[in-house]
């Protein structure tokens, strides 16, 4: 029984570590997306004028 408990503990620990890594990666990607949208001008104004001219 002790071996089984140790195995369960280890898998739980590994899962928590994986979850932590996934969360940090998600956080990083969110930051990069925000910075890229801020730095680059959004392509919506040209599209809006295009739609206005076609109607």
Structural class: mainly alpha
- Helical region count? 2
> Secondary-structure element order, as H and E?
HH
Round the mean pLDDT to the nearest integer and report it: 73
Number of strands: 0
The percent range for strand residues is under 5%
Approximate helicity band? over 70%
Let me know the largest β-sheet: none
Distance between the ends:
75 Å
How many structural domains can be distinguished in the coordinates? 1
For the CA atoms, what is the radius of gyration?
24 Å
Structure commentary:
The structure is a single chain. The protein has two helices and no strands. By secondary structure, the protein is an all-alpha fold. It has one domain (2-54). The chain is rod-shaped. The mean pLDDT is 73.
How would you briefly describe this protein structure?
The protein is mostly helical. The protein is built from two helices and no strands. Helices cover about 90% and strands about 0% of the residues.
């Amino acid at each position: 029984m002790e071996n089984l408990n140790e195995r369960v503990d280890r898998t739980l620990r590994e899962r928590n570590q994986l979850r932590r890594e996934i969360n940090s990666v998600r956080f990083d990607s969110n930051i990069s997306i925000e910075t890229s949208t801020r730095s680059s001008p959004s392509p919506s104004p040209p599209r809006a004028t295009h739609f206005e001219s076609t109607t």
